[in-house]
Model the fold of this input.
Amino acid sequence: MRGTQPQTIRSLNLVSALDLVRRRTSISRAELARELRLSPPTSSELVSVLLQSGLVVEHGPGESQGGRKPMMIEFSPTLGHVLGVDIGSERIVFAIADLNGAIESETVIATPNAHDDILMSIQDTGRTLIDSVSGPVIGAGIGVPGYCNRALGRVIWASNLPGWTDLDLGPLLQRQWACPVVIDNDANLAARGEMAYGAAGDYRNFVFVALGRGVGAGVVIDQTIYRGRREMAGEIGTWNLAQPWQATLEGVVGGIQWKSLAQELVGIPDVGLLFRGFRDGRQDIQDAVQERVGALCVTLGNIVALLDPEALIFGGGLTAAWDVIGPLVEQALADTAFQVPIVVSTLPQRATVVGALADALESFAQSRHLLAGVDN
Done:
């Protein structure tokens, strides 16, 4: 960690300690120090900070290992709540959870058409949820379908949301909700959600592929979101495809394109009806779907060749037709030199909001008043 500031090291250690306590039913200071490879004094100092914050509690002595029984600590989810929001081009999902990530309340609204109406709906619905729970909401996480600057809480650009350019969304919502607010790209948060509560399991290196109205990816390297120099890593929807497409990947397999194909082949922009036609054996639909999924698979093959991940995890609205798309993807990648497990999300339509909840909790663990306890 040469060149790493002491404050950053303390922050990382505190988050790692909190995460370990959350994942274990109970743990002693000595076990925590051993598993995090910290000195006993450093481990004890971190635990003291977490005890003072109320995030962990002592609950009694554990089993003796030949000497004095150790005092065990466990995570306390009752300190407050976190709010998660997944802003989509067609719907916005809100969830309130305890600090274990257990969702207590969830609301889904249609995304308004106008810029100001979207902002007002987010502010008002979030405020209503915050007011509905007993105890404080200690933080909020927001998933945005576009480029974000996390440090500033700014949406740089969201192509599917009108007027969302250089928007200081985080500071705006922080003032309205009176709690810390962090924002991130929706695919990054979906990858975080899969790590915390979903299909990622023990995978340390994987790519989450989001297939909805937009197309994107969350890249995870050693269980850390890889963001890139400008936080634009994973924007696979902008990749240019060669002939015969001469279009971006999103311009071929994005949600609008599937609706257009449905309009052309079944007479209405109903993607579900389109895939029903595939299952019923309509050759024209099968040919068109296979052609578009084939374009997606070229991109997936390039991702696998570049990153050699442990798995590709797929989520988003298009996975509702995974019985059609999944076998096509598996067959295409099976024919390449790079074999990789294909996994479908266990958090359908919820990975981003769940990731936003996890992001809010981690942000709180890194907050200034907690870290002040480490410095004292």
Residues 283-307 form the longest helix (25 residues).
